[in-house]
Each structure stands twice: as structure tokens, then as C-alpha cells.
């Protein structure tokens, strides 16, 4: 059963990595009463993660290794399994130092059900995760202890301003460079973006875990009507305002339906999150803060890409070089953000 996989680019010793992984998996399966029955098979390889499918005598298990910037995912999954049972699958084993994660098979995803055009499906995904995020708001110490970074609403404008100037310093011939006119537009929108973020911050909602890539391909379909909708793929997660997690599902739902983020028919998706927090702040203020939530969601996505796209990744995958700046530029076109360019 020789491992038939290629070591990830970030591995310190590529020659020994496949055998080390196989040995670790075998050792972790034994206490779980499982035995590997075949060679690991590489099913996903990205510049930031590698996923292996591994057959055992009791079904498939999954191994994941993350690039250093996303290595916290393994410890985070273990933490969530303890704090919010059912929100994630219980890991078979975790090696927090190496960022290795061994998971049972979760079955099909919500996306596999081919219901991405149905607003009620997106509302269910958002509402269930919002309830989990609220439960986690009392455990931020455990979350940061798992290695999760923080990007709260109160710090978001300063973050945006700092990143804008960092990007402006990139040489024009660098693949990560952004067109000067795009940066000019972002700077002109800064007052309006600050207003939107300020409205979000004034809600006073606690920071909690933001999945930061919440869509139907990252949620397992429940096996029964009352079963949990377990999420996975948490390498992008941050501590932030819980409403920041509206951006990704709204974008995916709008794309699936061929519409825009501000389509009134998507209101139930937004309401699903608002309902979870309606007793914590003024409901009218919640609605007024939606543009700021979308802006913060873009910043969270940008920060994730900033961590992932190191110079070596940008060299190997030039198409990713501007992934982080592109999310900052996305804020300029968000619905509900009035761009008072004459104030800039």
C-alpha cells in the first residue's frame, strides 16, 4: 500500500511526506477501530491545501494538510467539535503542530442536492450557521487559542486604509500590482466605506467565528430532517462581526439565480441572520448595517487571500497574485454603499 500522492509545495521534506502521512493515518485509525485498505488518493491539490481520500474497512476517511497560514484549521475543527457539537464532524485525529486533519466521510453536500437556486436553502444554511456563531461568541478565547486571527468591525477601516497603501507600493511590473485608477476609486470611496463600517460597528454585536467561505459546497447535507448541517473547509475562518458571513452566501445565491446581491427575493437569506441577532440590537439598525456587513465580508475574504498568496504561490499561480487586492476593490461596487467621491 505505497502512498500514490505528491507532497505539497510547502512541505519541508517532500520525499518523506507521503510515507509520514500514511504512517500517521494508520496510527490514528487504530484507536478508532479502523484499518486502511488501500493507498491514499489525492483528490484536491491547491497552492494552500491538499486533500487525500483514504479507503478503510469502515468506509472512506479524508486527510487534509494546509499551508502554514491556514494551519489553524485542524485545531479549530477540534475546538468546534467540543464547543458546538454537530456544527462540524467530529475529527478522527488532529495534529495541530503540523496542521494535519483526519476526518470521517460526511456524505453529500448541500450543493450536491442541486438546490442552489432555492432561496429557502440559502436561508437555512445562513440561519443555522448564524445560530452557531452566536453560541461561539462566548468562546472567543478558545477560538483565538486555536490560531484564528481577528478582524473586527471597529478595526476594519484602518485595515482597509493600510492595505490600500501597501498595495499602492507594489511595483507596476509585479503580478500583484493594481491599476492606479482602481486604487484612486477605492480611495475616493473610503469615506462612504467608513460610514458603512461605522454603522456595523455601532450595532455592538460581539465578534465571533466567521466561516468566511460559507456556501453550499462547504456544508454537508443533513441525513435526517432534524440533523445538523455540519460545515467544513474552515481554513479561511476569522473572528469578526457575525454579519460579515452574509457576503459569500449572498454572492453564491445571486449567481445561482442570475441576479444581484440586492435582489429583494434574496431578503430571506439576510433575514435568517438578522433573526438570530434581533434581540441583541435595534432591528432597524441591523438593516441599516447590511452594507457595512458586506464591506467587512470583502475585507475578510481579502485577508484570507493575503495570508495564502505568498510570493512563491504568486509565482506558481500568477492568476492568484491579485486575489487579495481584488476583494478590496470589490467594496466599491457593493449595493447600499453611497460613494461620496466629492468628499475624497
Tell me about this structure.
With 344 residues, the chain is of the alpha+beta class. It folds into two domains: 17-104, Phosphorylase Kinase, domain 1; 111-343, Alpha-Beta Complex (Aminoglycoside 3'-phosphotransferase, Chain: A, domain 2), CATH 3.90.1200. The chain is 43% helix and 9% strand. It contains twelve helices and seven strands. The chain has a five-stranded antiparallel sheet, sandwiched between helices. Strands 6-7 form a two-stranded antiparallel sheet. The radius of gyration is 21 Å and the shape is globular. The termini are far apart.
What global shape is seen?
globular
- Helix fraction, binned, reads 40-55%
Largest sheet: 5 strands, antiparallel
What is the CATH architecture annotation of the largest domain?
Alpha-Beta Complex
Output the structural class.
alpha+beta
User: Class of the largest domain, according to the CATH hierarchy?
Assistant: Alpha Beta
**Beta-strand content estimate:** 5-15%
SS field, number of helical segments: 12
Radius of gyration: 21 Å
Averaged pLDDT, please?
92
Order of helices and strands: HEEEHEEHHHHEEHHHHHH
- How is the largest sheet built, in terms of strand order? 1-2-3-5-4
- The N- to C-terminal Cα distance equals 64 Å
**Number of E-type strands:** 7
Q: Unreliable segments (pLDDT under 50, ≥5 consecutive)?
A: 339-344
Number of domains: 2
CATH topology annotation of the largest domain? Aminoglycoside 3'-phosphotransferase, Chain: A, domain 2
Amino acid at each position: 500500500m505505497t502512498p500514490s500522492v505528491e507532497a505539497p509545495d510547502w512541505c519541508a521534506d517532500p520525499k518523506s511526506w507521503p510515507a509520514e502521512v500514511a504512517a500517521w493515518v494508520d496510527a490514528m485509525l487504530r484507536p478508532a477501530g479502523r484499518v486502511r485498505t488501500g493507498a491514499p488518493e489525492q483528490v484536491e491539490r491547491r497552492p494552500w491545501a491538499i486533500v487525500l481520500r483514504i479507503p478503510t474497512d469502515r468506509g472512506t476517511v479524508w486527510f487534509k494538510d494546509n499551508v502554514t497560514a491556514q494551519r489553524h484549521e485542524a485545531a479549530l475543527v477540534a475546538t468546534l467539535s467540543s464547543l458546538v457539537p454537530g456544527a462540524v464532524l467530529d475529527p478522527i485525529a488532529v495534529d495541530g503542530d503540523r496542521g494535519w486533519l483526519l476526518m470521517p466521510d460526511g456524505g453529500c453536500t448541500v450543493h450536491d442536492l442541486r438546490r442552489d437556486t432555492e432561496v429557502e436553502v440559502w436561508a437555512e444554511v445562513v440561519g443555522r450557521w448564524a445560530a452557531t456563531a452566536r453560541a461561539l461568541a462566548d468562546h472567543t478565547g478558545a477560538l483565538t487559542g486555536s490560531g484564528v486571527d481577528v478582524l473586527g468591525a471597529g478595526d476594519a477601516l484602518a485595515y482597509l486604509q493600510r492595505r490600500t497603501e501597501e498595495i499602492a507600493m507594489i511595483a507596476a511590473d509585479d503580478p500583484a500590482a493594481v491599476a492606479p485608477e482602481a486604487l484612486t476609486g477605492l480611495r475616493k470611496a473610503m469615506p462612504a466605506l467608513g460610514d458603512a463600517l461605522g454603522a456595523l460597528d455601532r450595532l455592538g454585536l460581539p465578534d465571533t467565528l466567521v466561516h468566511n467561505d460559507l456556501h453550499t459546497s462547504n456544508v454537508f447535507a443533513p441525513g435526517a430532517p432534524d440533523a445538523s448541517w455540519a460545515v467544513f473547509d474552515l481554513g479561511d475562518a476569522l473572528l469578526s462581526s457575525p454579519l460579515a458571513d452574509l457576503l459569500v452566501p449572498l454572492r453564491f445565491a445571486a449567481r445561482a439565480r442570475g441576479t444581484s446581491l440586492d435582489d429583494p427575493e434574496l431578503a430571506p437569506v439576510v433575514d435568517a441572520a438578522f433573526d438570530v441577532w434581533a434581540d441583541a440590537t435595534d432591528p432597524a439598525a441591523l438593516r441599516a448595517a447590511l452594507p457595512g456587513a458586506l464591506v467587512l465580508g470583502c475585507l475578510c475574504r481579502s485577508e484570507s487571500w493575503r495570508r495564502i498568496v505568498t510570493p512563491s504561490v504568486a509565482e506558481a499561480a500568477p492568476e492568484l497574485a491579485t486575489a487579495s487586492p481584488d476583494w478590496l476593490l470589490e467594496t466599491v461596487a457593493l449595493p447600499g454603499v453611497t460613494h461620496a467621491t466629492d468628499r475624497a
